[in-house]
Structure formats: C-alpha cells, structure tokens
Specification:
single chain; mainly beta; five-stranded antiparallel β-sheet; four-stranded antiparallel β-sheet; 9 strands; globular
C-alpha cells in the first residue's frame, strides 16, 4: 500500500447510519501518515461503507488524527490538524460540522476568539 491510514473518528448515532470521518484518500505526502479527509457512511452497522463526501482536496499537507469532540454536536462534529509528514512544517487546526463542511482556525488569534475560515 502507498498510504498509511489513520482511521479517524467513528460516529454511531441513535437511529442513523454509522459514520467515519478520516484521512482515507491519498494526500500530498505519499508515504506519510494521513491524507485527504473523507466522510463515509454505513447503513448496516459497519458491514458495508460508502464514501459520501471528500471533505478536503488539493491540500499542501496531509491531514490526520480526526477526533470526535466530547459532546460533539451538528456544528462542531470533528477536529484535526494537518502537517507535512516528510519534514518540519507549519500546521493548522481544522474542524467540521455534521454535513462535512470544513473550517480552518486562524494561525494567530486576535484576542480570546478568532474567526474560522471555510475550506472549500
């Protein structure tokens, strides 16, 4: 395999499909941890999976270690970071909502809060 997977976060919600958000797609650092983030769903308790949405693409650095926040809710559903798996690099924090929309936190916060940037 040419991709090192970090499984990401598994979401098992009452009355809905199981979901995984993780770096299951190849990223720019081919041999490094992570990749591009995708949202997968299983309607049958994990027996089969379908990719619903590729959440990141064309990234300069691999994304990895998606985590489900404690008390995750629709507007703050997953959080992770990016970084160059091959060398020292800058790194940003990202989060997503339940619909798979991705937001990047600013590198520098002006005060106690900062405005996240939507990643398309």
């Amino acid at each position: 395999s040419t991709h090192n997977y970090d499984v990401g976060a598994l979401y098992v919600e009452w009355g809905g499909p199981w979901r995984i958000i993780g770096p299951t797609e190849p990223g720019p650092q081919k041999w490094g941890t992570g990749g591009e983030i995708a949202l997968w769903e299983s309607p049958d308790d994990g027996k089969t999976w379908k990719k619903i949405k590729q959440m990141t693409q064309g990234s300069p650095r691999n994304h990895s270690y998606v985590r489900r926040p404690v008390g995750a809710r629709a507007e703050f559903y997953g959080i992770w970071a990016d970084g160059n798996a091959d060398e020292f690099s800058e790194s940003f924090l990202y989060y997503c909502n339940r619909d798979g929309e991705v937001f990047r936190l600013p590198a520098v916060m002006d005060g106690a809060t900062g405005k996240a940037e939507r990643v398309k």
